[in-house]
Amino acid sequence: MTHQGCKHLREFKSTDGTGSYRILVSYFVACSSTEARKRKAKSCICHSCRVISARLHSCLSCVYFGCYGGNDHIKQHATTKRHNFAVDLSHGAVFCFLCKDYIYDAEFDEILAMSRKASKQSIGLDKTCQPWEPSCIEKELMQLHPKRRKVTEYSTIGLRGLINLGNTCFMNCIVQALTHTPLLRDFFLADKHNCLMLNESQRCLVCEMSRLFQEFYSGVRTPHTPYRLLHLVWTHARHLAGYEQQDAHEFLIAALDVLHRHCKGNNGLSKSNPHHCNCIIDQIFTGGLQSDVTCQKCNNVSTTIDPFWDISLDLGPPPNSLLLNPALYGAFEQPTSLMSCLKRFTRPEHLGSSAKIKCSKCHSYQESTKQLTMKKLPVVACFHLKRFEHSTGYHKKISTYVEFPEELDMTAFMSSSRSNNNGYSNQVVHLTANGLTSQHKYSLYAVVNHRGTADTGHYTCFIRQHKNQWFKCEDHLITKVDLKDVLRSEGYLLFYHKQILEYE
Q1: Which of 6, 208, 234, 450 is 20 to 30 A off residue 343, Cα-Cα?
Q2: Residues carrying an active site annotation
Q3: pLDDT digits (tens, 9 = 90+) for 173-187
Q4: Domain range for residue 141?
């Protein structure tokens, strides 16, 4: 797609204006009224072959709908009638048959944004969401999506490669993971983002992510070129600007942060919890990490709870401070599985004499122990295996194979399951009366891998399309793989989705 404007379209607008585009967008793209939606359902078929097409285009000069691709009747119409412009009715993009490409026009883009806003207001999508409540977020999300999208077996919808724009594989693999996150997909495909930057929507990363989801689930199989997304990343996260290879984990956190900031102005803060945002990013990715610091003199426990988007797990030697009873816990053994990483992450840590903390009870500086546990689990749990070590003049990658499961139970690492004896319990997960599994159970749905060294390498991603359908995404290449290939991979970022909110 050209982003520089089109002289042919400028000439067209000077003589024919923008009226035809406004009508098409209002009645057949944004559908700003109930009547418009009914009209679209009845009228959106190719006038030549009478087939309903996912890529139906409308002539901008006359009343003609034609299929794009396949028989390509819209192109035949343009050649015969010399009508050089067509509008893609799935997302409002304009195709110029003289430039032979989709073209960008600021005036048309503003018309499209205004029409979409009017459409959301007409069906009530611009209403303020209910305040975010950590205890009932899963229930609220399920109520928002009572008819959840079902990706049928052998379906290829949503599978689309991404062109590498020069060492941008780190971005491509994160985009693949995000576009296959079910609740995030529902949010963007429902066009629920009400942008507050109407005259500058090109600067809004959430608007671009919405466009990206529409591209992924449009049914088009040709690789997509995410140049607009890359430009916005450079604009809003300048430390990632340039064509050098970047860290995929760093990009994930930067992307979530920018999306959160752009959504925050739209959704605001929870009335019941003014320190927590109720935007879609926080609803899906934010969990609560509890830190308990215990005074060794009086056993007083000081507790703090901090939000997190991901959990970073060490693979190398433990910190200089010793764990309690290292002989019992095998503290110096290198973890070989995700479970052993999590057990190590949640074990009590002796802070030592060099890190004494003033106890709020005995009012003196004492040695203490610190233990981390999960106070609240997010809908999507992302685990970052710290494979890269960086120190002055020294870079190292830890390529040790770390086993990770298809299904994960986090019950043992919850604050409610904490044991004073060993830092974690062996609590058995029970089935509820209606047959649902524990609310702390997760299923793997995406894995980001890195091959190479700490200084150079290449990122790839595995994504789950259906419960038993896995695919490998390597930039523009999408290939089907077996689950065993996923579980045998090195693993750098692991994405798990709560089973209680899983889509069939």
Answers
A1: 450
A2: 169, 458
A3: 999 999 999 888 888
A4: 137-150+158-267
